[in-house]
């Protein structure tokens, strides 16, 4: 059975029942350059499918566009072009009441539990606000729902009248999760949800997110710069570099045999808490700096820093194509580093 | 408003030799940064330090003002987490490196000027000759951290204190800074204190580890012993709470319940007992001493992990 060459991660046949499908998604930001024409290529032609009930991890370094991608998916920012299908409805085309209705099912958890909670609102008000916004519950009913959700995320329901500053970082992140959970969503985008937390607290939140997923059959897009955490929580991982997805595939397969050189570099860069492993680990050091997303390098965007780049890499852009069942990489020399 | 004394760091003793890299690990508020600032007598007002800090034969706490100034710049250098806030944004990078040498008068003006470019080259800033004229904002995060390291090592200190030197950086940049620190410590034959919350970084760089919790050392020893055979429940749990990039199967992480104590009102007994899964009655009332558990390895615990049958399943309960 030969696959047509047009299979993209959005049409990946191994994703049997996609909840989210992203096609040719582009997000450019104008920067007001000399003639007002310079743009930041934050997200460029991204294709993705997210299987119902899975966790898709999205990793990349700062400025690669991973947070922007997350925000465009949940329509916190409008796409420049392309489509985001959620249960076969194109969110980028929906407006008004129709978009609002879908939004109940699509929620977001933010990185900074200090900045993403209004300091003047009590926990009860914060968690019940979505219920009020969507006119789903008021009064006693809303109170009950808030208490229920607080219990589910491991917060003492007796604390409803407290303010965010009375809580630790980990508890604040639980408040953020409760707020996202109160509407009974099916899909959650978590943008670096544990990066700002202490190590001993990170595990609490990661475990909580895993429990919630099982309990409520949630689908996650888990965005982080930290490969170890992403690998741990995700069924599949997508790697981003300068606005493009360069590799996507099952977590275990990527760990054992990364196909894209950038994935391999990322993996080799992360120290492991084991002195024996560290004694022999040789990180692949990248030359130069990450190029500006205003003027990304032509053809393969990684070619200026890639340890195995050849002439073709600066001339022809490698498509993100299926290399094996369920595995995609955008590289002319995939698997050769 | 509350008042009173917070024992941010309480009864810390350790020593460090030339050529050794010692990791001080702990979470925010564990006192690891305060310990380092105490070494330099840089504790912010109204903080007080008591005890002895011996540098060679000299007690840092007894030094006169000009002596401590001399000591800070010439013998010790500190590298901070955020290179953007530690560099002056309106001065050229080269000038700042030169200034660091001028301030401590180990070199003449002429020598300082001549040493700037080689220093920047030594920390592997590409095209150093051109870039010495750049301002900090023209440098990337990794380059700024390199410039900070250049300033720190320009006076050839015998003790280098690096406080979360890679935390603000991307992973690929982190990797190169780790390599640089390793090389620099070897070249200088300096003693290095690496302060971090990242156990993996410690495994990568350090010969010896000091684990801090609530202002105390709870465990200390050679890196390999601490990672392979941790005896304090805090160290043990911390190591199992972190996912590993090379992890084979998706295992459930062992989390440490609760939060670190408020040091203004620390718990009685062992400071870790409210969060400890292996505590016994004694832990509630009596604080354990830091006792030797193996040659060179010390732990502050009444129980010790080696006395627990199947800690993993115990911790999962």
H/E topology pattern of chain B: EHEEHEHHHHHEHEHEEHHHEEH
Number of strands of chain A: 12
Rg of chain B is 21 Å
Order of helices and strands of chain A: EEEHEEHEHHHEHEHEEHHHEE
Query: Mean pLDDT of chain A, as a whole number?
Result: 92
Widest sheet: strand ordering of chain A: 6-7-8-3-9-10-12-11
β-strand number of chain B = 10
> The biggest beta sheet of chain A, please?
8 strands, mixed
Total helical segments of chain B: 13
Structural class of chain A: alpha/beta
Q: Characterize the largest beta sheet of chain B: strand count, sense, and whether it forms a barrel.
A: 8 strands, mixed
Helix content of chain B: 25-40%
Bin the helical content of chain A: 25-40%
Tell me what the structure shows.
The complex is a heterodimer of chains A (337) and B (317). With 337 residues, chain A is α/β, with parallel strands linked by helices. Chain A is built from 10 helices and 12 strands. Chain A has helices spanning 66-73, 96-103, 123-133, 139-152, 169-181, 199-216, 227-233, 251-256, 261-269, 275-280, and strands at 18-30, 39-51, 55-59, 81-86, 89-90, 106-109, 187-191, 219-224, 236-241, 244-250, 321-324, 327-329. In chain A, the strands form 2 sheets. In chain A, strands 6-7-8-3-9-10-12-11 form an 8-stranded mixed sheet, with helices on both faces. A 4-stranded antiparallel sheet of chain A has the order 2-1-4-5, covered by helices on one side. In chain A, helix 3 (123-133) packs across helix 4, helix 3 packs parallel to helix 5 (169-181) and helix 5 (169-181) packs parallel to helix 6. The two termini of chain A are 29 Å apart. Chain B is of the alpha/beta class and 317 residues long. In chain B, a hairpin with a 2-residue loop joins strand 2 and strand 3. In chain B, helix 4 packs across helix 5 and helix 7 runs parallel beside helix 8 (171-188). Chain B starts with 20 loop residues before the first strand and ends with a helix. Chains A and B meet through helix 6, helix 7, helix 9 and helix 10 of A and helix 8, helix 9, helix 10 and helix 11 of B.
